[in-house]
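Hey Z.,

So I finally got round to the fructose -6-phosphate thing we talked about over coffee. Here's the setup:
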Amino acid sequence: MELSKVKNYDEMSMEAAKIVFEKIVNSNRLVLGLATGSTPEKMYEYLADMLNKNKVDLSHVYTVNLDEYVGLSPEDTQSYNYYMREIFFDKVNIPLENTKLPDGVAEDLDRETEAYDEMIENLGGVDLQILGIGRNAHIAFNEPGTSFDSGTHVVDLTESTIQDNARFFEKIEDVPTKAVSMGLGTIMNAKSILLLASGEGKKQALQDMIHGKVTEEVPASILQRHHDVKVITDVEDIKL
Ligand code: F6R
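And the result:
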């Protein structure tokens, strides 16, 4: 694991954007795994700026997102589909057909989860996976207790995640209680991983991820077993 300590959210976002930008311009074909949430927002903003200023063609880039809420259609402003278009896809010249997120309103969700893993496999796997981390050390929506071998699956969100995500909704009752999420096995198959964490609220999760026991009770601890993980964080007193 590699650790980059930065001063603040802005520096974290800029460093991450540069890494992704370099990957994009230095590849003939690239599969990017993308995250949503507050953490990567500014990274997407910087990345879109860099790509547009340099007139980078993105037809060789494919994206697969980590997760989507069950019950929210892509037109729903709270959906991750909507977030990604608003914050990134619509701002750059990526062909929309190259961008994939789970379908949270699929009639057969089990079939959708299988199809999502097949789709990732058919793309040749994820080259670079961007991750955030939850306060309970979840990655994607893999809550404590999720099997390390899991593929894409339907998840019951924990109370702590529902509360954390309530800030994006008018009232807590509006927060979906289920999501479709890439599994920990899916994430571990990525060739390289870039995890971003900002703010003291993520300190315990980072400590447990880096130094704790590798256990399904701490989903992010599985990353200790991945050979190419870079963490960028502004959280103080985090060491390898
Ligand atoms: C989002 C995702 C989640 C978030 C995590 C942190 O696609 O997979 O694991 O990365 O919940 O969320 P924020 O960044 O809002 O603190």
